[in-house]
Amino acid sequence: MRGINFDYAATTPTRQEVIEAMLPYMYEYSGNPSSRHSFGDLSKKAMLNAHVKVAGNVGAAGDEIIFTGSGTEAINTVLKGVVEAAGKKDCHIITSAIEHHAVIETCKYLAKRGCRITYLPVDNRGMVDPDEVKKAITDKTVLISIMHVNNEIGTIQPIAEIGRIANTYSIPFHSDSVQAVGHLEVDVNDLGINFLSMSAHKLYGPKGVGALVIRKGSTIMPLLHGGGQERGLRSGTPNVPGVVGFSKALELALLEMAEENKKNWSLRKKLIEGLEEFASEVHINGHPTETVPHIINVCFKGTSNEELMRALDQEGIFVSKGAACGSAYEEPSHVLTAMGLTPEEAHNSIRLSLGRWSTEDDIDLLLDVISRAKK
After folding, report:
1. Same domain, 233 and 283
2. pTM
3. Distance CA 130, CA 178 (A)
4. Residue-wise pLDDT tens digits, 186-201
5. Last residue within a domain, chosen from 218, 252, 286
């Protein structure tokens, strides 16, 4: 379907270069990497190469990564796997009130099984205070899980500082970096991260492929059991074409990251300046500087997001209320209410996200439609 996409944070189209890298492993080199023959070896080598390349691009070793079916699976693997490995009925996890539903819902599941969860508050810009992380630590804490970039507002969390605190107390640290990898420089060594979750479809790779960095020395139980693939931590025949596509997409994203971010900062400035013409009727949600350039969350006072989204959709402009994975939830955004917005303000907010094919003309049309919709 043709149109103007302002919802890149939900998913990105798969780049042609990525598709071309994947195609041989869909037919010509389609062997099972677990098979003990030369045909299977071709797929096995592709998997090993992808392990090394993807891991290396975030500062990890090739044997410190497993590929999963999604970022959600990677997150579930960490939270459930660490708790199970701890073997404690009264274990404790520290996370934030603005995490992705993959973290929030997994924590709810673990809470029903006796695990205590601390949801740290955020300030009115969506920022976690590292001192609050330190205060929340107990002798029962088995994991700290704080996202790197918030998927609804774009705020970048002080991950390096939180990582230092976690390491000081010898507590494993997980970061959901699905919205960070490919948009920021991410190095698990510099950030003090033990577990890092990623997803291919957020950086112009295929859907249905995620990855999880598991640093050496980390203790974790597998989520899936079976044939023992991925070092016994993720059984099941791997999606070789998808893994190859993930590797290629990340390679291209990092090569072009500086240029794309520069372009998106310029488009962001143009968009916000245009929106500010609505004066007091518009408020930008999130941190003004500690943010990725491609995610802009806007509150339009007196206009519901559903009303505005319908007007935009009729013009072929696609935006979102927030996380696509949370679209089934009719409640106001938990991210925005945690920041202090009222339910009405949250219901009046939309997320606009830029990407590789966004242009100044797209911004002009968006502003024009919004202006007409609010009259």
Report:
1. no
2. 0.95
3. 21
4. 999 999 999 999 999 9
5. 252
